[in-house]
Write a structure and sequence with these properties.
The structure holds two protein chains of two kinds. By secondary structure, chain A is of the alpha+beta class. Helices cover 46% and strands 16% of the residues of chain A. Chain B is an alpha+beta fold. Helix content of chain B is 57%, strand content 11%. Chain B has helices spanning 3-14, 17-20, 26-52, 55-73, 78-105, 117-128, 191-196, 198-206, 281-288, 290-325, 333-340, 342-345, 348-358, 365-370, 382-410, 414-422, 427-455, 458-464, 484-492, 501-530; strands spanning 129-131, 138-145, 148-155, 158-162, 169-173, 187-188, 209-210, 219-222, 227-233, 235-238, 243-246, 252-256, 261-263. The chains are: A alpha+beta, B alpha+beta.
């Protein structure tokens, strides 16, 4: 018995020592609130640039900024899961098409840019707006465009799909044109420019430009696009093929086996052997081809304990030309800050993507968009590999409409 | 056993090492240090659990910590001293996960239902509060009077000040155009204090100062503590009645506690809902929703076929090669055996990705080399895709069975087989009646665990076909090669679709029950095999 008591006493004393050791390193008791802190989630690419803005912020306000690095793919799900528990960050980096899901989950707060709004590209602010409210500070744009091999087909932009195919065939390469279909999975995103040129947007836009949840791909325009897919699919000309995935696509273009491809700025580094020229996507259905424009920005948590501080940091520190430039240099994408976008357009490749983004539309950010991809991609893939275009397309529209209603 | 030996062994078994402790030895010090660490960690968890008001975690950690101290400082619970760490890990990583999945399966957790009802109300109010059109930004100072907070702004050279109850009132003319620096009757709150005091910040962020007697004119609000603008909300929350009223349209959204939504009489609803228990709805949906039930049934059938066929084919091939390469007449056996194990050394997901390229109809090496460049769309046809998945998994897993069978073959009793040979049994007879039953005694449990593993073999499906090709009707986004686990992944929406964690959890629980039942049955069968020995 005596040894047992001795043991307990000893363990208590030792625990106290260990505990004292722990607490002295972790700092003050968080309950006193003597120090304000902002927690920001970011991915690796942007961490450095935010650090610079954070250092200035800490110096001027005395508030501490803690950056937590995560995988970009995990940010949305983690943010939705953790904000309601009170464990989430004050600010997170994110893409604009998450907005619908974030608003529906009730995890984001509105932000007010005030007079600062005029410094940003209109399409970027529009993308970050949901039901008339601005929810994030935008900082970059991205879109896809027609990339062509200047040595094979010159620098001039083709006037239409038929013109492009004719020039491609005249170049005498193995294929006139390649486009990623993500193997059997389908890739509605990359194909969207051609789809809009038939007048079949994924969702109908109301007069203010906001997307409604009404599917816009049905009807005669959608059927015409489906027939075009089939006519150029494996049962037709074979120009579109489910054998092409991202890497194959880049390989065929880079090796000169195809003079045209449709890609985003992220793929440019995969084309070291090509004299690249970037142009807007040509029309296949007669109307203007409008690819999706994606916008990246910073969201504010609805459960943030330091809303004033977070707003101050977003608007007055990240929303400055200096911070936006640092973000561009850390991770070069088309800047959402207008004067900066103009400045970087001196690079012809970036200028090509900027031109393409100007004819583009923001990717719908309504939560319904999340349900679209699987149905849409699969239907396109099936039509390209030879399924009946009209019935497959209409079945997809029916199923999608049913899924959105339920 | 002699009597005194028995007595001594009995005494030793009763005596714990605590009793045998003679002064402070190294062992005791190590134990003390370890227990101090455990206690420190446990106390740290308890303290932070109190801080974040997580009562379940608090209760569990108190019980676990107390149990740890009792077990390691009394002499009664000797076996528990060895079992306890394992039990804690079992509880933390398995029972908890399972219990939590079970709980989610009975809720509507998913897109639009991510938090509590209070958070849904907050979100609705946040989303409805808009800056009044053309409202300018006023330079602002936060002021304080007897514990009450207020706003002081400069509006066209006039100083206006007020709190949330009485609203803004003129307080004379202001000097300059910046934020007010002197407000009679009020104390100024410096911006530095404001930004570094989270509690004060919270109060200021929630503060609304009406600009006139008419509430429809809106109220002043600040977003950053140094400027204010007029905002107006069209939604009003009535906590008593549990309703949210839209003052512009007159619609009253009532809280529907069975669905976790605010619904108006005309059927329209607010965007943000909350988590509620939905009973067995998720299970009922999985079996009755026509968009789900049909595809899920097909997926279930293929899952069983995939798991059984994979284990069967790879076991058969592995065993066959093991018997062949165990024969002493084969030259260079060691080198050949090593070569056979190579696929086993490759990461499975890399192999699956490589095979995806090799099965490509146009560029793939499979069509080029073995089918003279024919355009066979391996991954685009449902049956060919299933065959391709089985083939790749055979390639990946036969080396495992090759290794296992090689080991088992070498431990077979040589004399039994020799005796059978002398008795005149042929090669096939010896294999069927002696080698195979003896082999199965040691390999059957492995086959069962391999079945359970392949039942949930997410990697190969995700990397090779991603479940495709899609079912023709394509109602539930599922495809011909989807296993239950990849179907659950798609339904859960983690990859970017609309999420339904409740349904996904309900399906996981069903998969758990199926695997558990199949494994239990199979293990009972293998016990019969052991009777052979």
């Amino acid at each position: 018995m005596r040894t047992k008591l001795l043991g307990l006493g000893a363990v208590a004393a030792a625990s106290a020592l260990v505990l004292a050791g722990c607490t002295s390193t972790t700092g003050d008791d968080p309950g006193t609130g003597s120090e304000a802190e902002l927690v920001i989630w970011t991915d690796a690419e942007r961490e450095e640039a935010i650090t610079a803005a954070a250092a200035k912020f800490t110096e001027e306000t005395g508030a501490k900024v803690t950056l937590v690095q995560k995988n970009f793919e995990d940010l949305r799900a983690d943010f939705i899961a953790q904000v309601p528990t009170g464990e989430g960050p004050d600010i997170t980096v994110g893409a604009h098409d998450w907005l619908g899901a974030l608003v529906t989950a009730g995890v984001v707060d509105t932000i007010d840019l005030g007079d600062n709004a005029s410094n940003f590209e209109a399409v970027a602010l529009e993308a970050m707006t949901y039901d008339g409210q601005l929810y994030a500070l935008p900082y970059s744009l991205e879109t896809i465009a027609l990339i062509q091999n200047a040595d094979l087909v010159g620098t001039e932009a083709p006037s239409s799909w038929d013109d492009m195919i004719a020039r491609g065939q005249a170049a005498g390469t193995e294929r006139p044109f390649v486009i990623n279909t993500n193997g059997e999975t389908g890739d509605g995103y990359t194909m969207y420019g051609f789809q809009t040129s038939f007048g079949a947007p994924v969702f109908v836009q109301d007069e203010s430009g906001s997307y409604t949840s009404e599917v816009g791909m049905g009807g005669a325009a959608g059927e015409a696009f489906a027939q075009w897919l089939a006519a150029n699919g494996s049962a037709g000309t074979g120009i579109l093929s489910t054998t092409i995935d991202y890497d194959t696509n880049n390989e065929l273009f880079n090796s000169g086996k195809a003079p045209y491809t449709i890609q985003g700025p992220w793929a440019i580094s995969a084309f070291p052997d090509v004299n690249v020229v970037v142009n807007p996507i040509p029309s296949a259905g007669g109307q203007e081809a409008s690819p999706f424009v994606g916008v990246q920005g910073f969201y504010l948590s609805s459960q943030s304990k330091s809303k004033l501080l977070a707003q101050e940091f977003l608007v007055n520190y990240l929303g400055t030309e200096e911070a936006q430039r640092a973000l561009y240099e850390a991770d070069p994408r088309i800047p959402a800050w207008s004067t900066l976008a103009e400045e970087v357009s001196s690079d012809p490749i970036i200028a090509g993507f900027v031109a393409s983004s100007q004819s583009g539309v923001p990717m719908p950010s309504i939560p319904e968009m999340g349900s679209v991809w699987d149905f849409w991609n699969a239907a396109e893939s099936q039509i390209i590999s030879g399924a009946d275009p009209v019935s497959t397309w209409n079945t997809m529209i029916e199923n999608l409409t049913a899924a959105l209603a339920g | 056993m002699p009597a005194d030996t028995a007595r001594r062994s009995k005494r030793i078994s009763q005596e714990s090492h605590a009793q045998r402790w003679r002064g402070i030895g190294w062992g005791f010090l190590v134990k003390l240090a370890l227990m101090a660490l455990v206690n420190a960690f446990g106390l740290a968890v308890i303290v932070s659990a109190i801080g974040t008001e997580s009562w379940i975690i608090l209760g569990v950690s108190i019980v676990l910590l107390a149990a740890a101290d009792i077990i390691y400082f009394t002499r009664r619970a000797l076996p528990l001293k060895y079992l306890y760490p394992g039990l804690v890990f079992l509880l933390a990583f398995q029972v908890f996960t399972l219990g939590y999945t079970g709980y989610v399966a009975f809720t509507n957790y998913g897109t639009g239902h991510a938090g509590s009802m209070q958070q849904a109300v907050d979100a609705a109010l946040i989303q409805s509060e808009r800056r009044v059109e053309n409202s300018p930004s006023y330079p602002l100072t936060v002021v304080e009077r007897g514990g009450e907070l207020g706003f002081a702004i400069v509006d066209d050279g006039t100083l206006r000040v007020g709190g949330p109850d009485d609203g803004l009132a003129d307080a004379g003319s202001a000097s300059g155009f910046g934020a007010p620096t002197e407000v009679p009757g009020w104390t100024l709150v410096p911006k530095g204090t404001l930004l570094t005091d989270p509690e004060l910040q919270q109060r200021v962020a929630e503060l609304r100062v009406p600009i006139s007697d008419d509430p429809n004119d809106g109220s002043l609000r600040t977003r950053d503590g140094s400027s204010a603008a007029v905002y107006r909300s069209n939604l009003v929350w009535d906590e008593q009645a549990q309703t949210i009223t839209d003052v512009d349209t007159g619609l009253v959204y009532e809280a529907d506690h069975s669905r976790g939504l605010f619904v108006a009489p005309d059927g329209s609803r607010l965007l943000t809902g909350w988590i509620v228990g939905v009973g067995f709805d998720n299970y009922v949906r999985a079996f009755t929703d026509p968009a789900l039930a049909g595809p899920l049934l097909q997926v279930t059938g293929w899952t069983f076929a995939f798991a059984v066929l994979t284990v069967f084919t790879s076991f058969a091939l592995g065993l066959f090669l093991a018997i062949v390469y165990n024969d002493p007449r084969v030259r260079a056996r060691r080198v050949l055996r090593t070569l056979f194990i190579l696929p086993y050394a490759f990461p499975a997901f890399m192999s699956a990705l490589l095979f995806r390229g090799m099965f490509n109809a146009e560029f793939g090496i499979v069509n080029d080399l073995f089918f003279f460049g024919a355009d066979i769309n391996w991954l685009g046809d449902p049956w060919l895709a299933r065959f391709a998945v089985l083939w790749v998994n055979l390639w990946l897993s036969f080396p495992y069975w090759f290794l296992v069978c090689l080991g088992a073959l070498q431990s077979l009793p040589g004399e039994t087989i020799e005796a059978a040979t002398i008795d005149g049994a042929g090669r096939w007879r010896r294999f069927r009646s002696i080698m195979l039953p003896l082999l199965l005694v040691s390999t059957a449990p492995l086959a069962i665990s391999s079945f359970a593993f392949n039942f949930n073999n997410f990697t190969i499906i995700y990397m090779l076909t991603n479940g495709g090709p899609a079912f023709d009707a394509n109602t539930a986004r599922l495809g011909a090669t989807d296993l239950l686990i990849s179907a659950i992944y798609k339904i859960s929406g983690v990859a970017g679709g609309t999420a339904d964690y409740g349904l996904a959890s309900a399906l996981s629980i069903i998969v758990f029950i199926v695997i558990g039942a199949v494994s239990a049955l199979a293990f009972r069968q293998t016990r019969k095999l052991e009777e052979i020995q």
